[in-house]
Amino acid sequence: MAASPRRFPLSWTTVMPVVAIVVLALSWGRDLGAVPVIIVALALGGTVLAAVHHAEVVAHRVGEPFGSLVLAIAVTVIEVALIVTMMSSGGPEAGTLARDTVFAAVMITMNGIAGISLMVGARRYGETHFNPEGSGGALATVATLATVSLVLPTFTASTPGPAFNGTQLTFAAVASLLLYGLFVLTQTVRHRDFFLPVDSEGSVKEEEHAEPPTNKAALTSLGLLLVALVAVVGLAKVESPAIEAGVSAAGFPQSFVGVVIAMLVLLPETLAATRAARRDRMQTSINLAYGSAIASIGLTIPTIALASIWLDGPLLLGLGATHIVLLALTIAVSVLTVVPGRATRLQGGVHLVLLASFLVLAINP
């Protein structure tokens, strides 16, 4: 008896992008009260989750490490959209938003996603294993991108404040884009095996045998992903005044808006990395963590540099002394984590303490 063809399920992830478009149409250009603001916030959060779900469906169809790449790019598109829309409405005071969001994304991915994944994997299996060649290369890329884009502006002397001049910004944008492209080429073509899950012997694991989605389901998810991304951009524009007002009402510094954006867009990816760690596929978790950090810098900085042509106010990218220390310590600890190719709960705990330190200092500088 022939099996009946699978149908694309009518789930909340299918309905949510359409609902978000409807909410966007009803709220665009209006002064919203408390209840509509809450509805828009729920629609925004649900649409981000739905977008990453559909990215995961497409990712499952194309396999690893392409899957991690698709998910990282989808998340970064959402992040860039949130930054640009909020900077366009924030005026000169939004000059540090890109820096705050990108640095928060780096801290959350390198310490939060990696730390949680290491804790979950080590707690379940005693010790986690990953490929030091791929993980080390990804870490080197993150460190270089973060230093060029976020540290060097603090020490340049051609412009006042922690900012690049036009030539320096152009170089940083082009270098970030080229380095991101080189990483993608290495991950997906030249040394794809460096980014595949490995066992305790260092041998590449076989692909999981879960049945991939059909072409129809993958194409449907691709279409819904595009709809969701459009809805996220619009809803972020509608919700941005409420986010800024909420941060101010809580007594947090305005820079915490960047942390909120990063936490919002990276929550689904954190869940995906945690699920991979529970299946003893730590390399996938590392790919998601470092790949998101690379995409966050490598795609956001060039986009913001281009957008700065028409955005009001300066573009301040340079980190302060406290954040530079946190970044340096994170890179040093990450090197000690990835070089052996295996880790325990201790390494996971160290990374989570670094994340907690960043969050405490973000709330109370």
From TrEMBL:
Q: Where is this gene product found?
A: Membrane
Molecular function per GO? potassium:proton antiporter activity; sodium:proton antiporter activity
Q: Which PANTHER family does the record match to this protein?
A: SODIUM-POTASSIUM/PROTON ANTIPORTER CHAA, SODIUM-POTASSIUM_PROTON ANTIPORTER CHAA
GO cellular component terms, semicolon-separated? plasma membrane
The species this protein was found in: Amycolatopsis keratiniphila
Q: Which residues cross the membrane?
A: 12-28, 34-54, 66-89, 101-122, 134-155, 167-185, 217-236, 242-267, 288-311, 317-339, 346-363
The molecule here is called: Ca2+:H+ antiporter
Q: How does it sit in the membrane?
A: Multi-pass membrane protein
Residue ranges constituting the Sodium/calcium exchanger membrane region domain according to the UniProt record: 38-188, 221-363
Give a Pfam family name.
Na_Ca_ex
Q: Which UniProt keywords apply?
A: Membrane, Transmembrane, Transmembrane helix
